[in-house]
Amino acid sequence: MSRNWLQWASAIALSCTVLITPGEAIAQDVNTLVQQAQAAYEAGDLSGAATAWEAVIEEEPDSAFAHAWLGFVLDQSGDAEGAIAAYRDAVELNPEDAVTLNNLGNLLAVQGDLEDSIRFLEQAIEADPDYARAYNNLGISLRQNGQPEDAVSAYRRAIELDPRYAEVYDNLGVALAILGQLEESVLAHQQAIDLGPDNPAVAYTNLGVSLFELGRTDEALEAYQMALEANPDYSLAHRNLGDLQAAEGNREAAIASYQRAIDLNPQDELAQEKLDALMEDEPTDNSSAQDY
Question: What predicted TM-score, i.e. pTM, was given to this entire model?
Fold first, then answer.
């Protein structure tokens, strides 16, 4: 047996006993934390998921994936400020992550930061020009920012990319109504309903608004009734129904509708104002008071 062979055999034995290098051990720890985070999220434990993702980030601070997931979990938890911070870290690390750019833009819009929302949603589209959801969210932010024409363009592009995206048709209908294109608005809302939106009560309510403004009150009434059949607790449908009833002189029914809207949404100041006016027998102008 030669000396060289013994050294080679010893080297093999050594390599077999040292199974994990320090770097590999860290990687294994991170993988375990990721699995824990995903398991917690799937179990509905958002706090546990957030804690696990924070631990992942402590080990891998440059992981855009981990920051993005932390943002998503915090968003689901209702921690908008924390979610925005995590999303910002994620897109700084990976500016081409269209999904996270979209999520960030959408959340910023909810928080009222429309300029930043539009900026990040445009970046999402630049990263993925075929991202229909980002075009839809961009349209929402543009409309809320007082740019309904630009919103219509964004919605139409979303429809080109995904012709069966029901919510986009509904949003398009709202923007068209703001522009005074009520007949087209009605058609867009009807298309949304035909496609089966996730929230039919919203689509029927929006349809009712456009029909009401066209003076087609019987059809508007039917639309509001369909909205409340889909979701009896949709406060806006109750308020808009009250507007229609008040406009037709049905005072008692309008009072009941406004009261129901307030019961469901105590922060609805407009419904409270309308109810107070009716209770005091003051004339109310409901001809253009409908809301989306």
Answer: 0.84
